[in-house]
Amino acid sequence: MERRTAFAPSDVAYFANLCHNCGECYYACPYTPPHEFAVNVPKLLAELRAQSYRECARPRWYGAGVALPALALCLVIFLAGTHENAPAAGQFYSVISHSTMVAIFGAATIFVAIALGASLMRFAKGPGASMDSKAFAQALRDAASLRYLSGGDSASSARRWFHHFTFYGFLLCFASTTSAAIDHYLLGLRAPYPFLSAPVLLGTLGGIGLLAGPAGLFFLKRHRDPLIVDSHQHRADAFFLAILFLTSLTGLLLLILRNWTAMNVLLRLHLAVVLALFLTMPYGKFVHGFYRFAALVRYAFEAASSAGRKAV
Amino acid sequence: MPEELPLFDVVVIGGGNAGMSAALTASEAGVRVLVLESAAPGMRGGNSRHTRNMRRISQAYPEAEYLADLLKVTGGKTDEQLARIAIRESFPAHAWMQAHGVRFQPALGGTLHLDRTNAFFLGGGKAVLNGYYAAAERRGIRILYNAEVTALNISRGVFESGTAIQNGEPLNFRAKALVAAAGGFEANLEWLEEAWGEAARNFLVRGTPHNQGKILKALLENGAESAGDPRQCHAIAIDARSPKFDGGIVTRLDSLPLGIVVNRNGQRFDDEGADLWPKRYAVWGRLIAMQPGQIAYSIFDSKVRGLFMPSVFPPVCANTIAELAAKLELPVEETECTVKRFNQAVIGGGFDHFRLDGCGTQSLDPPKSNWAQRIDAPPFFAYPLRPGITFTYLGVRVAESAAVRMRDGAASPNVFAAGEIMAGNILGEGYLAGIGMTIGAVFGRIAGREAARATQH
């Protein structure tokens, strides 16, 4: 309100994604039900966020119904070969060859990168969307520390920790994969890697984060005041949290049981879940991280510009 | 048989800022407290739920300036002893509120330029109440919602018992001392009509529908001395399309000083630029109440749109003044003529709506003393205006201890009053933004302390 007294439609998606959904405004607003204006800002912004996910998702034909079919498809693809001859202990590539894995996940990664990039471009463009490196750096700090979830209310504080677990857990898993690629291509080391190697240590730590974070977020979601949530998003949110959790669970089980015969099934299951995670990324809740960050960049830019104007 | 509540030490009627300040203070003095709140939990706290800030002294805003501001707006119609207490105690009250769950924040830019004089509540008045109620629950204060007090048994100035209706069932309560913090009578349309005549039917009530003035009436009928004039109130210009009750802050219109204001005959009737808006906005409720049909229209052009906080309803918009007048059902020729005469009278100069810019009119009656710019940049906009009554000033007279004074001159030993129900002691007329919360918090604390003390006798 201090920076604009008129709101363009393009501002709406920005505001919706700038909201960190603490819910405090609902309890402080004198116009929430039973007032006749029946204002419900947290619910409205949640609906607008979902709308921005839908509208910005690229490619366009990629849609809400993609999640479960994608998971089912991945399971079929990978589990189809389960009956084949049992592999030797720890020999992942005798289950599915390295080149097959690279081909499938390479293609998926390229698709996800392009789709996410296009979606983000779609979200971030529009009038008033400007930025500079300072704003970018500020937003990076704000996002990395989840600054706006440290407002002091206990609900936000718990959400902050579980978001941290999820986010850094995901990054550690990403780092684990990257270090494995380095081991494979640059150092000529082949999986399975020993327990005290970078891929396993990073993956284990990340895996723990991806168990604790999504589980905690799911718990908090279940206990949130039903008045302020958009119940239509329950399924999509639960799917995203579940698939993150399953990615980690199957990965950690695979680590523990990699020398058992169950490894065959576990590896296929793990790869199926990871592929499903990849394929649903551009549509599901995963984009929240990107859109929220883009909104923070724009906010940091606007805050700096208006502070500059005030100082003049 | 009505339900009988056990004997409490202190009963507080009304769970707004004043009532909760009293309840918390009394409870901290070690006595058992009962709060009777007439609203449901989601609508609790009377008009405090619509407030946003509190005027308080600080290093930047000394006691003397605060008092001078008050004397100016009230035209000296104030009990100076009580006013000095309210002002002096506003400083510790501010700190006390922070210790009881109230969070403050810097003023929002673009509001009534109040950051020097007023402390703003983070989250607004409802968040203040949430803080108080959470603190009260932690202390074990008993709070009954939907409990409207219908009768008080006061004998020669001494409170003995009372009756409330809770969810349709009668409820008898007793206590050693009573704090009346139940607000004024602005939501009682019959009472308003007694004071204002038929014009009152066109008033909109900005706040809670629960302020029926029943406790005020009960006290006056039981021998309390009155303070203030039933016709005096805080009333401002709000959007005529607002709901009858509870429209709150979002219906207030701050466009008035940036354009002209005409009545239903298309004629101007007062100086829209007489003084800075924060000092002047509270005059407009009364000015519009005195116009035919109690309606007026704020007209401005696209030059000034965006210079004031937008309100909840969009303005009426047209490309010509004639079209605008037709949409507003105003006499078209008369309205065009008013705008034309106004435009001809504008002197011009360096327009600056943040200060008295001296951009006035010449040979125009009534004049516009500041911020006069020609209304010539289409599209043109208008808001329909009605008097929005915020609160009434008729109350009970109190002593410095917040004890209610009886007509025989003595102060009641166990009946105390705080907030709007006694604000008329300090606000004889006029209004100073944010002083209502000062009076509520300061006299709420005094009433709570003194009521707790009264139970020891």
Explain the overall architecture:
The complex is a heterodimer of chains A (312) and B (457). Chain A has 312 residues and is mostly helical. Chain A is built from twelve helices and no strands. Chain A has helices spanning 9-18, 24-28, 41-56, 67-79, 92-95, 98-124, 133-145, 154-185, 198-222, 234-256, 263-280, 287-311. The two termini of chain A are 20 Å apart. Chain B is built from 13 helices and 20 strands. In chain B, helix 1 links the parallel strand 2 (8-13) and strand 3 (33-36). Chain B starts with a strand and ends with a helix. Chain B is elongated. The model of chain B has no long low-confidence stretch (mean pLDDT 94). Classes of the chains: A mainly alpha (312), B alpha/beta (457). The A-B interface holds A 1-2, 5-6, 24-25, 27-37 and B 40, 42-43, 49-50, 108-110, 123-127, 130, 243, 246, 248, 250, 306, 308-310, 312.
Q: How is the topology of this model organized?
A:
The complex is a heterodimer of chains A (312) and B (457).
Chain A: H1 9-18, H2 24-28, H3 41-56, H4 67-79, H5 92-95, H6 98-124, H7 133-145, H8 154-185, H9 198-222, H10 234-256, H11 263-280, H12 287-311
Chain B: E1 3-4, E2 8-13, H1 17-28, E3 33-36, E4 53-55, H2 63-74, H3 80-88, H4 90-99, E5 104-105, E6 118-121, H5 125-139, E7 142-144, E8 147-155, E9 158-166, E10 169-180, H6 189-196, E11 204-205, H7 214-221, E12 226-227, E13 233-239, E14 260-263, H8 277-280, H9 284-289, E15 296-301, E16 316-318, H10 321-327, H11 332-345, E17 380-392, E18 395-396, E19 403-405, E20 411-417, H12 420-423, H13 435-454
Parallel strand pairs in B: 1-10, 2-3, 2-10, 3-7, 10-20, 11-17
Antiparallel strand pairs in B: 4-6, 5-6, 8-9, 9-10, 12-18, 13-17, 14-15, 15-17, 16-17, 19-20
